[in-house]
Amino acid sequence: MPEHATEDEHLLLAAGRGDLDAFAEIVKRHQTWAWRIACRFLGQTQNAEDVVQEAFLRLLQAAPRYDPRAAFRTYFYRIITRLCLDQAEKKHPFYTDCPPDIPDPGPDPAAQIMHRETSAAVRAALDRLPANQRMAVVLRYHEDLNYIGIAEAMQISAKSVERLLSRARKRLRKLLPAQDYRENNF
What we know:
Layout: H1 7-16, H2 20-42, H3 45-62, H4 72-90, H5 109-127, H6 131-142, H7 147-154, H8 158-175, H9 178-183
Helix pairs in contact: 1-2, 2-3, 2-4, 3-4, 4-7, 6-8, 7-8
């Protein structure tokens, strides 16, 4: 095992040897961000829950074969990404900004309405992107992954990620009002 292996890699190796408590710890640590990616990409809570559950099942099944040279998070991103893209091929997804916004008592109602309208416009624009572009946007702008991390998760080259994001930004620039485009830092 490489010296740089993190606790997650150790937990997955233990899960591969049958330690279900170690796997339960992995689920506890990573279920929130895994669900967030699936929900933002698929747009439906139930579909996101199904994808995340399947991702964890696949992770557990693959645990005995896990090679700790692959960073755990990258390895798991790859599983979730593949399942989301597979789901998108089966059914045209509807993009939503999950988890649902919890009303903040701070902003005034007019600001809240403007925010909801902007969010709806962004969701509609993202829904019009091809699945690979949408996944790259979710990983970059919602999960803050760098190009290399996105490339590893999507199993493509960093140059391909650059092209996907460039095409996505061009399309979003055409689909969104300039103000909405700028506010979302695409």
